[in-house]
Amino acid sequence: MTVKQLADLDVAGRRVFVRADLNVPIKVTDTGREITDDGRIRAALPTIKYLVDAGAKVIVAAHLGRPKGVPSDDFSLAPVAARLSELLGQPVVLAADVTGASAKAVVDALSDGDVAMLENVRFDPRETSKDPAERAELAAEYAALADAYVSDGFGVVHRQQASVTDVAELLPAAAGYLVLKEATVFDRVLNDPARPYAVILGGSKVSDKLGVITNLLPTVDKLLIGGGMCFTFLAAQGHQVGDSLLEADQIDTVRAIIADAADRGVELLLPTDIVIADDFSATANTRVVTADEGVPGGWKGLDIGPETIDTYVAALADCQTVVWNGPMGVFELEPFAAGTRAICQAVADLAAMTVIGGGDSAAAYRTFGLDEADVTHISTGGGASLEFLEGKTLPGIAVLRKD
Question: Would you name the residues annotated as active-site residues?
Answer without folding.
Answer: 40, 205, 359, 383
